[in-house]
Amino acid sequence: MARHVVCHNCAAVNRLAAGRTAAAAKCGTCGQALFNGQPVDADAEILRRQISRSDIPVLIDVWAPWCGPCRMMAPAYAEAAKILEPEVRLAKLNSQEN
């Protein structure tokens, strides 16, 4: 069964054919890799599109630049993206900006 994945770069919705390796897939609109092993820096609109249009789960880290625990967790969250992609999309939402 085909899956829909939202590009982290241009927010275009891409259809991945069943059996195709998602880790190597590129966006049909901008040509960027759909998965790069890093959390997506998202604003409210990109996050809405990731959640509403993608067929894969989205794990969201709501953080703030002044938050010490948030900064301490960032490397572990980035490591989780390397492990969980392409089955889960990891996103970061800056609560101070959004």
What does this structure look like?
The chain has 98 residues and is an alpha/beta fold. The protein has a single domain (3-94), classed as Glutaredoxin (3-Layer(aba) Sandwich). Helices cover 28% and strands 23% of the residues. It contains two helices and five strands. It has helices at residues 44-53, 68-84; strands at residues 3-6, 13-16, 40-42, 58-63, 89-94. The chain has a three-stranded parallel sheet, with helices on both faces. The chain has a two-stranded antiparallel ribbon with strand order 1-2. It is globular and about 40 Å long.
Short account of what is shown:
By secondary structure, the protein is α/β, with parallel strands linked by helices. It has helices at 44-53, 68-84, and strands at residues 3-6, 13-16, 40-42, 58-63, 89-94.
Please outline the helices and strands.
Elements: E1 3-6, E2 13-16, E3 40-42, H1 44-53, E4 58-63, H2 68-84, E5 89-94
Parallel strand pairs: 3-5, 4-5
Antiparallel strand pairs: 1-2
Keywords:
3-stranded parallel β-sheet; 2 helices; 5 strands; globular
Query: CATH homologous superfamily name?
Result: Glutaredoxin
Contiguous helical run count: 2
Q: What is the ordering of alpha helices and beta strands?
A: EEEHEHE
List low-pLDDT spans: none
Number of separate structural domains = 1
Mean pLDDT: 93
Compute the separation of the termini in Å.
35 Å
The helix content, as a percent range, equals 25-40%
Strands, count: 5
Estimated structural class: alpha/beta
CATH topology: Glutaredoxin
Strand content: 15-25%
Biggest pleated sheet: 3 strands, parallel
Strand order of the largest sheet: 3-5-4
The whole-angstrom Rg is 13 Å
Label the overall shape: globular
CATH architecture: 3-Layer(aba) Sandwich
CATH structural class: Alpha Beta
